[in-house]
Structure prediction request, 345 residues.
Amino acid sequence: MHSPLKSLIQSGTKLWLDSIDPDLVRESFALGATGATSNPIIVSDLLKTGRFDRELQSYLKQGLTVEAATWQMTDWLVTQAEKVFLPIFERTNGNDGYVSFEVDPLIEESALPIQAQVEQYVELGRKWSKGHPNRMIKVPATPAGLAALTPLAASGVPLNVTLIFSKRQYREARERVLEGAKKLPNLDRFKSVYSIFVSRLDVYAENHVPTLSPTAQAQVGILNAKEVWFENCEFWRQHKTPLQQEMIFASTGTKKPQDKPWRYVAAFAGSDIETNPPQTNKLTEASGETFTKAIDKLPESAIVSEIHAKVDWVKLEKVLMEEALKKFADPQKALLKFVAEKAGA
Prediction:
């Protein structure tokens, strides 16, 4: 039977699941997925199902604080996914088979000066990476997060730089990561990925750039991600490393009912990593489509010129970063409140 997801993988794409639900991880692994990512929204949704009450209760009974128990549960869930993908990590000598662990999103909301925030990112990144060879530490491309990349890379921590919306963020991230990697004894296990968000840019364009033509409106996220992909290929061609330093195409779930659910999946087929939501994978697998390499195909030149003439990329980055940090901070607060209620019960 034809498998669209397998055709996607055969085109050259690494498929990672945007979830650490143990059941979905096993299902996606069977379909050819080679990694997974997590974030506070995913962890919060999983714990609220009640499926992991026994594990959560065991941490609370140990006398851990609500916050400590919550992070131990996150660690446990990510570890279960890591076990599934560890054989891939070993077979590829560390080039694939990772699961991402996002450090505390509430760091950005703290009243701490930026240097203290940087130190927290570094401390937590090293802590949660230790003893987990196929765990990637997720750090946002904020001023504090970006500044933390050099010491983390110098510590040998595999990095997933997340919440990238603009070329400016991507360029600063890669430079800081490379600066840290150069301090390692060797680059044999140096691995970094850069998560460029896609669908949120199309939502932004619709809300903030109404003068774009309908065709251009639908191409903002795709064009930006592909241009960053071209830059990333060229940059690491000049700075060769044993392992691939790759792009992750994130936020690949469509937002409009009229769009085919695999629209972004098809656009980035052929290279690097796609982290698709479970529902996107499900609908893509049922689509009957065959995916071929499309990552290197840009929109027509008139569309490219229109987008660059009308989109204010500085404003876009600012608006989307503010929204993104809130989207991760609020679920983390809700999760802590939920665990506190469990502890009280």
Summary: The chain has 15 helices and eight strands.
